[in-house]
Structure prediction request, 279 residues.
Amino acid sequence: MQVTKTVEETRNLVKNWKKEGKSIGLVPTMGFLHEGHASLIQRCREENDIVVVSDFVNPTQFGPTEDLEAYPRDFARDSALCEGLGADLIFNPEPENMYSNPHAFVNIDLLSETLCGKTRPIHFKGVCTVVSKLFNIVAPDRAYFGQKDAQQLAIIRKMVEDLNFDIQIVGCPIVREADGLAKSSRNTYLDENERKAALCLSRAVKKGQEVIHAGAAAQDVLTEMKAIIEAEPLAEIDYVSMVDALTMQPVEKAEKDVLVAMAVYIGKTRLIDNFSYEV
Prediction:
């Protein structure tokens, strides 16, 4: 497995693989890899000749008061995991190699204005920008994203369509702990009591799935889910919403495919979870 630090090194390797007729898969990450990332890398390994993992904590998707400096990092651990899963390349650039000053941004309106985008207004602009740059640098045939970040996945699909990227976007299922908590790098922020409290998210997901399959209206689904979260003293709701799966706009009934998503603070740690309902 190789490690590159610059755009130029990475492009040169990609050009050689392309000349050899090899298919390339990309798994974009911010590092501190866990089993959720591993599932993306494994899927990528199954479907491509070459597996590229980007390991980059992207500063443009963090707001001024968010956890950029505190975000967990462990490149040695990431590298060992990637090598064990058969990755061919880790692209691990420094911010100055990815961004000039000033630099262009990519933004997808409408889809980025609800859910996480409402309380993190610059987040998806940063995500779209860095993912566009990675697509241009790596030129993958396929790129792999987890469905835990469902709004991000919908926005990236829309960006690929609108900007005519010739890339297949592959969404992969949420990976959970044995007790139901969705895997997240930010889970490491939780102390023992907060870790237990965080299970209110997966309990709310389970309840929401039961209620929506019974034919409940959106408000009834959300009321049931909020009640579970509000019963946990350490939890504070950012949002619990039902939206159209394509437009990310709120809906009152699940008359077409929808996403039911939440963001909840457990102490100071903001966690997300969701489920999809297909009509």
Remarks:
- Residues 123-138 form the longest helix (16 residues).
- The chain has ten helices and nine strands.
- The chain has a mean pLDDT of 97.
